Backbone:
């Protein structure tokens, strides 16, 4: 099943939209629009009467942005949008293990924003690094299995780290782990114009696709809008 975003260019980059049964990995620098990317599909699912599980590990809540994008208060959305807030890396793992308990009929999308934030915080304790790498790999594997066995789309948003060769280039956090599990990989960059975001599909490589979108109050747009004063 293909879950379209409702934005033609974004859906073209995604070969029609998010596919159920697969693991999609989206990474980008801070303020690149990763959360908007996820919420664009949450918004589309809501409009189709389909449900979403949204795991938010970031320090800011997605609720205000989702209300802005949909034009609806969250109390009108919460019957189809379930948001969970893990407080740490271990709690995130327990929640991912229990996700199948929360999947109901018509629930087609799981978004994790971001999978690696608590992981990076856990890495500050050097003594547990190996265990943390192994745990992240396990969590990603559970998500991949859930996508396949329950035929849901799993969208994992990820932070980035600078490459050694240049400050202007970056790579995903735990790229080796996430590359192993990912069926689709999308890279996001901040463009030069206000609100401009550049998206590129890296995996699958066949028919590589990229495009330019703009951040607006209602989500992504193919055209830049000028706010009225």
Residues:
């Amino acid at each position: 099943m293909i879950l379209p975003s409702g934005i033609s260019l974004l859906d073209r980059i995604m070969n029609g939209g998010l596919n159920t049964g697969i693991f999609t990995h989206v990474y980008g620098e801070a303020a690149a629009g990763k959360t908007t990317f996820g919420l664009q599909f949450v918004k589309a699912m809501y409009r189709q009467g389909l449900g979403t599980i949204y795991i938010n590990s970031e320090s800011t809540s997605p609720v205000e942005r989702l209300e802005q994008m949909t034009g609806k208060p969250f109390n009108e959305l919460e019957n189809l949008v379930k948001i969970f807030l893990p407080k740490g890396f271990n709690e995130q793992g327990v929640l991912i293990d229990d996700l199948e308990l929360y999947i109901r009929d018509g629930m087609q999308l799981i978004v994790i924003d971001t999978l690696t934030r608590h992981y990076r915080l856990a890495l500050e304790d050097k003594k547990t690094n190996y265990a943390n790498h192994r745990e992240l790999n396990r969590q990603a594997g559970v998500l991949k299995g859930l996508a396949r066995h329950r035929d849901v789309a799993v969208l994992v948003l990820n932070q980035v780290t600078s490459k050694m060769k240049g400050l202007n280039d970056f790579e995903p956090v735990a790229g080796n782990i996430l590359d192993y599990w990912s069926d689709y990989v999308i890279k996001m960059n901040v463009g030069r114009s206000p609100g401009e975001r550049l998206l590129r599909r890296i995996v699958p490589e066949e028919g590589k696709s990229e495009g330019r979108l703009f951040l607006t109050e209602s989500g992504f747009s193919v055209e830049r809008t000028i706010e009225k004063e």
Remarks:
- The mean pLDDT is 93.
- Helices lie at 8-13, 34-47, 63-70, 89-97, 99-102, 117-122, 129-150, 175-181.
- Residues 2-221 form a domain with the Rossmann fold fold (CATH 3.40.50.300).
- Residues 16 and 46 are 18 Å apart (CA to CA).
